[in-house]
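Good morning,

Attaching, inline, the backbone tokens for the sequence recovery test we're adding to the shared suite. The designed sequence is right after.
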């Protein structure tokens, strides 16, 4: 008999993968600053919003899915803007392409995982009593 994972367990694994990809993408500029700006430059992303939205997905808060997708699309737009206006001669292309890859991979999992959609839409929690 073939092994079949529980749908909730699959959704949790998919959400864990998405949260790992997004939190790594948010922390990457702090870990490798020179992939994004020169030594004297400043580049910072916030991981608080991403962490709250991912937590909302784990807690089945329905608006979190749409908000997380919108947040990642905004990030992808900013990455595109940075790549299209890169005046350094391609010195920072690798860092921005890596960020784009991580965010696109997370979005693909969010869009194409039926388990995540079923998990989030099944029974939302009540945030206020």
């Amino acid at each position: 008999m073939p092994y079949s994972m529980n749908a909730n367990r699959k959704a949790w694994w998919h959400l864990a993968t998405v949260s790992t990809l997004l939190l790594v993408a948010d922390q990457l500029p702090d870990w490798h600053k020179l992939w994004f700006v020169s030594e004297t430059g400043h580049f910072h992303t916030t991981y608080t919003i991403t962490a709250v939205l991912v937590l909302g997905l784990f807690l089945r808060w329905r608006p979190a899915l749409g908000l997380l997708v919108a947040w990642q699309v905004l990030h992808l737009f900013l990455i595109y803007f940075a790549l299209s206006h890169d005046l350094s001669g391609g010195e920072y292309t690798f860092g921005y392409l890596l960020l784009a890859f991580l965010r696109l991979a997370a979005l693909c999992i969010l869009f194409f995982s039926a388990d995540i959609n079923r998990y989030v839409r099944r029974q939302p929690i009540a945030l206020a009593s």
